[in-house]
Write a structure and sequence with these properties.
disordered C terminus; five-stranded antiparallel β-sheet; alpha+beta; binds glycine; 441 residues; binds adenosine monophosphate
């Protein structure tokens, strides 16, 4: 079967790496991909949201399955585009319908869904210009800090956590006046939850589900979880506190009601559900849903899946996921993200990357890279890999312990160079216990 994977980041390189290993994969294409995906498949210069171009490509290249990496094509309805097109409708798209993608595309939708299905989450109120005074009263009824969320997609920047009540009220007014454009026409106010977070990934065919390895990501740019939010500076799987007892609660209280809730509301959902959880004194609550895999969590989750991913996705497409086996590597995998100097603010692109060949033990997943021709060099080897984004390369390693995996990734991170390279040297800092063996799924 020929497979088309949409997207261009570290998540997509990890997906491409795993899809390419399947004996069921003939040709793997990635649109648009990066320098890393080009090493395991064929990049095609098509934007993931250009549905007409995707259609043309799928039909001319006999694509048998489309796997969607990022949320944008899903929220814009690529699943429905295929279903409603006579020539495309037999070709499975791994990802939810536009309606299902609202779990990520609208925080108000997600909260209302959780209410309908008794899924534990923070108390909230959705506010528009029409009920601003109610919103202010809600903020006044809460203790600091105050949590304000733009309803719509805001490139990961739409959540504000504010310590001062007057400032929170001013921000609420600014959001309703368009500080995040249309995304903040509705604002979700939430009770602040104190706890430690983790990411649970569920693969579903709409009826059955598999819970993939649990991960924890590190979003802040600075060590000790300080400074600005980024797309993710590293990740760890498994997560020691997500033990059997905790995961049992997650499955019973959150995963099953989510999958059954989608089905009972006739929401087509055949793909990944990303559940952002917070552990409050041993009790799991949902912070957010996403309609895709996480990045950089994918760079630690997929290396722990021993089963054939294409076979699992066939189960999703054909509704027989329950018959498929999910085998998980018991070892720990960590990833450390190398980023461009200045990120998440302004940063330069096009910096040559060297030392990739030094990494003999471990996995490198490219996030923001591209191949560039070296001017004037007319031999076969006239390309170099250069930086092409804020997040550049995810350096993933296996280990029998968290410490061993981290040491390998830090050693590998040191041996790769590009101008302005930065990475956090404390990934996993809140999970490390000396000599702890991490053996939970
Ligand atoms: P979200 O985009 O909804 O995942 O929010 C981004 C981040 O804000 C989360 O990963 C949490 O760290 C934090 N956050 C969101 N909602 C809450 C909440 N109700 N209480 C505490 N922290 C929150
Ligand atoms: N790592 C969080 C996300 O992918 O949204």
């Amino acid at each position: 079967m020929n497979i088309l994977l949409l997207g261009a980041g570290g998540r997509e390189h990890a997906l491409a790496w795993k899809l390419a290993q399947s004996p069921q994969t003939d040709y793997l294409f990635i649109a648009p991909g990066n320098a890393g995906t080009a090493t395991v498949g064929v990049n095609v210069p098509i934007a993931a949201t250009d549905f007409e171009a995707v259609k043309n490509f799928v039909l001319t290249n006999e694509i048998g399955m489309v796997v969607v990496g990022p949320e944008d094509p899903l929220v814009q309805g690529i699943y429905d585009f295929f279903k409603n097109d006579a020539a495309l409708k037999a070709i499975p798209v791994i990802g939810p319908s536009k309606h299902g993608a609202q779990l990520e595309g609208s925080k108000d939708f997600a909260k209302a869904f959780m209410m309908r299905h008794n899924i534990p989450t923070a108390h909230y109120l959705s506010v528009t210009a029409k009920n601003l005074s109610e919103g202010i009263a809600f903020l006044k009824s809460q203790k600091a800090p105050y949590v304000l969320k733009a309803d719509g997609l805001a490139a990961g920047k739409g959540v504000l956590i504010i310590n001062n009540l007057d400032e929170a009220i001013r921000e609420l007014e600014a959001m309703l006046n368009g500080s995040f454009g249309k995304a903040s026409e509705t604002v979700v106010l939430e009770e602040f939850l104190a706890g430690i977070e983790c990411s649970v990934f569920v693969l579903t065919d709409g009826t059955h589900y598999k819970i993939l390895p649990v991960a924890k990501d590190y979003k802040r740019i600075g060590e000790g979880d300080t400074g600005l939010n980024t797309g993710g500076m590293g990740a760890v799987s498994p997560v020691p506190f997500a033990d059997k007892a905790f995961m049992h609660k997650v499955e019973e209280r959150i995963v099953i009601p989510t999958v059954e809730g989608l089905k009972s509301e006739n929401i087509d959902y055949k793909g990944f559900i990303f559940i952002g959880l917070i552990n409050v004194n041993g009790e799991p609550l949902v912070i957010e849903y996403n309609c895709r895999l996480g990045d950089p969590e994918t760079e630690v989750v997929l290396p722990r899946i021993q089963s054939d991913l294409v076979d699992l996705l066939q189960g999703v497409a054909h509704g027989n996921l329950a018959e498929k086996e999910l085998r998980i590597d018991p070892r720990t995998v960590v990833t450390v993200m190398l980023v461009s100097g200045g990120y998440p603010g302004n940063y330069a692109k096009g910096k040559p990357i060297t030392g990739l060949e030094n990494v003999k033990t471990g996995l490198l997943f490219h996030a923001g890279t591209r191949q560039e021709e070296i001017a004037g060099q007319a031999c076969n080897d006239n390309h170099q890999i250069v930086t092409n984004g804020g997040r550049v390369i995810a350096v993933s390693s296996y280990g029998d312990t968290l410490e061993a995996a981290l040491n390998q990734s830090f050693a590998n991170a040191n041996s790769i160079t590009f101008e302005g390279k930065y990475y956090r040297k404390d990934i996993g800092f809140d999970l490390t216990k000396k000599n702890e063996r991490t053996k939970h799924p």
